[in-house]
Amino acid sequence: MKKYKAIFFDWDGTAVLSRKAPVDDIIGPMKALLGEGVKLAVISGTTMENIGGGKLYTYFTPEERRNLFFGLGRGAFNYGFDESGEAYTFGEKLPDREMLVQIHDVCYAIHKYLLNEHGLNTDIVFSRPNYCKIDLMVENNRGEALFLQEGEKERLLETLSAHGFVGGLKGLVELAENIGREMGIPVLATTDAKYLEVGISSKSDNVNTILGFMEENHGIIAGECSFWGDEYIGFGEGIFGSDSFMITDKTRAGDFFDVSETPGERPKEVEQLGGGVKRFEEFLISQKRCG
């Protein structure tokens, strides 16, 4: 495998097993590459507090941190580090309070529609800064393993069918975006089967912003980057998991890899390697230039 100047990667299920799992195994390979000037960008839907307990960056020296980036919050936040090792944000995409309330209204309308028309109960997480998470399988508790679980897609499709909802996951995405249009809010909906996430941005915004920064400041282009995740899998009719949003017009010339073992369709750009977090760790080790 070729050596990359920048590596973008999902966190839960790709770099670590869960948000509360030890980070010891991934720190060494990351540190080695950061020290050699390789740019590493963690791309995740969560917040900094949930990446290595909010302290991941403290494992690295100020010089190493200058090669570390975070694209978090489903497009909301992008972080880099200055010469002193202090974090700064750039290219934020956050709704104002009025827009956030409107996103909440759209999600509540989705909840009411599914309950009134199909008898399907959902829960909504309203506390995200730029989107809502609609829990489509309220009785399915993932615990700390927040990434897509084996069999979840099939269980959700069975649930939707049992409640008379036609169209599967694509139908849910279209429902959310149609309700948004009817309410005058151009929302973007994504899904990992258990959750329908509705907001104004996605991982596409994170990777585009960070790659743009790397290109402007370091001359790095998409063909010199790789993008790793465990949720590229398709849910039918062109609907793919959250990591597929790292594939954009700007990043498409890069290389995309999936460490998930789950069988199924992926975007044509993605190579399924399997092997889970261990496979990603081995990749990082193989990218070391010296020693």
Write the layout of secondary structure elements.
Layout: E1 6-9, H1 24-35, E2 39-43, H2 62-65, E3 68-72, E4 77-81, E5 87-89, H3 97-118, E6 123-125, E7 131-135, H4 152-162, H5 168-182, E8 188-191, E9 195-199, H6 203-218, E10 225-229, E11 234-236, E12 239-240, E13 255-258, E14 270-272, H7 276-286
Parallel strand pairs: 1-2, 1-10, 2-3, 10-13, 13-14
Antiparallel strand pairs: 3-4, 4-5, 6-7, 7-9, 8-9, 11-12
Can you give a write-up of this model?
There is one protein chain. The longest helix has 22 residues, at 97-118. The protein has two domains: 6-93 and 202-286, Rossmann fold, CATH 3.40.50; 97-199. It has seven helices and 14 strands. 31% of the residues lie in helices and 19% in strands. It has 291 residues and is an alpha/beta fold. The model has no long low-confidence stretch (mean pLDDT 91). The protein is globular. An eight-stranded mixed β-sheet has the order 5-4-3-2-1-10-13-14, sandwiched between helices. Strands 6-7-9-8 form a four-stranded antiparallel β-sheet, covered by helices on one side. Strands 11-12 form a two-stranded antiparallel ribbon. It starts with 5 loop residues before the first strand and ends in a 5-residue tail after the last helix.
